[in-house]
Design goal:
CATH architecture: 3-Layer(aba) Sandwich
CATH topology: UDP-N-acetylmuramoyl-L-alanine:D-glutamate ligase
CATH superfamily: Ribokinase
Number of domains: 1
Strand order of the largest sheet: 6-5-1-9-10-11-12-13-14
Oligomer: single chain
Shape: globular
CATH class: Alpha Beta
Distance between the termini: 32 Å
Helix content: 25-40%
Number of helices: 13
Length: 332
């Protein structure tokens, strides 16, 4: 099948999570023995203890791949998402939010078992986010939940590394990648988190070498993947292992590696830095939207950088303004 004939630009599979964003100080991070800037998995009891210790929060649908797919849809792309929620209040919030931006989301809600996943995001005054995630119903995703027709109709299948923490989700991940490839689609992977990489380094390396066309990673993640001593060393390690590697470096912008060389992309600074939640997710959204419209590598990186530059100026992982207007203003 000609990729241009496909019904979807990007279909993503990931953990369906509702984020609770709270502004916190460094003492709270230290008291709960958390590592600033990373994601820790917690059980329901730990999640409730943490929640009881903080002030009012902002509830907003999140999840790494879901944020990316919401961004693709907001940019005008044809997007679909696959993930498991429970038929509870948070599950209803998640389902409404992703559909409201134009993404297709049809995965049936679980009627029993753990509640919908939630992530308590502690945002410190330096704009760093420290995440405590209760995965709940999201880890119940299994191959039976896959809409393989939708996967086969995607130009790009986008997968988040966090799925590797569940054997059932991992199996779904591999099954979907095989279907996408069989139907002429490409597979993109986000490494998600440096600690996630530490947990699954060997299998991620195998994935990158054998199954992934487009890799997204930040500086911490790519250096963890190859146990490198520097970003430059890690970039040399990943070069040529997949078709494209898009490596983000916060205020230093990003570097995209492909067969024709190294492309350095400058960051967009659109206002004061408030919250880095969702920056990598929105970079991937902009990049993949441009990529699936046939744009050059530099244009993909610039759109990714623009979307990331916007989301860090607000609280929350999904853009509150119009991405189409942002593109018209800065790239039009």
């Amino acid at each position: 099948m000609d990729p241009m004939d496909k019904s979807y630009d990007v279909v993503g599979i990931g953990n369906a999570i509702v984020d609770v964003l709270v502004q916190a100080d460094d003492d709270l991070i230290a008291n709960f023995e958390l590592t600033k800037g990373t994601m820790a998995l917690v059980d329901q009891a730990q999640a409730e203890r943490l929640y009881a210790s903080v002030g009012p929060g902002l509830e907003t649908s999140g999840g790494s791949a879901a944020n990316t797919l919401a961004g693709v849809a907001q940019l005008g792309g044809r997007a679909g998402f696959i993930g498991r929620v429970r038929n509870d209040q948070l599950g209803g919030i998640f389902s409404h939010d992703i559909r409201s931006v134009g993404a297709r989301f049809d995965t049936p809600a679980a009627t029993e078992g753990p509640s919908t996943a939630r992530c308590l995001i502690l945002v410190t005054p330096d704009a760093q986010r420290t995440m405590c995630t209760y995965l709940g119903a999201s880890v119940g995703l299994d191959p039976a939940d896959l809409d393989l027709e939708m996967v086969g109709q995607a130009k790009v299948l986008y997968l988040e590394g966090y799925l590797w923490d569940s054997d059932e989700a991992k199996a779904a991940f591999i099954a979907a990648a095989e279907v996408a490839r069989a139907h002429g689609g490409e597979v993109a992977l986000s490494l998600s988190d440096a600690f996630c990489v530490e947990r699954h380094r060997e299998s991620f390396q195998e994935l990158v070498d054998g199954h992934v066309d487009i890799l997204f990673a930040n500086e911490m993640e790519i250096t963890a993947l190859y146990k490198a001593n520097s970003f430059e060393e890690a970039a040399d390690q990943v070069r040529g292992r997949c078709k494209l590697a898009a490596l983000t470096r916060s205020e230093q912008g990003s570097v995209v590696l492909n067969g024709s060389g190294t492309h350095s992309i400058a960051p967009f600074q659109l206002g004061p830095l408030l919250d880095t939640t969702g920056a990598g997710d929105l970079y991937a959204a902009g990049f993949l939207h441009a990529y699936t419209q046939g744009q050059a590598v530099e244009a993909c990186g610039r759109l990714g950088s623009l979307c990331a530059g916007q989301v860090v100026t607000q609280l929350g992982p999904r853009p509150q303004g119009s991405l189409k207007q942002l593109v018209a203003q800065h790239l039009g």
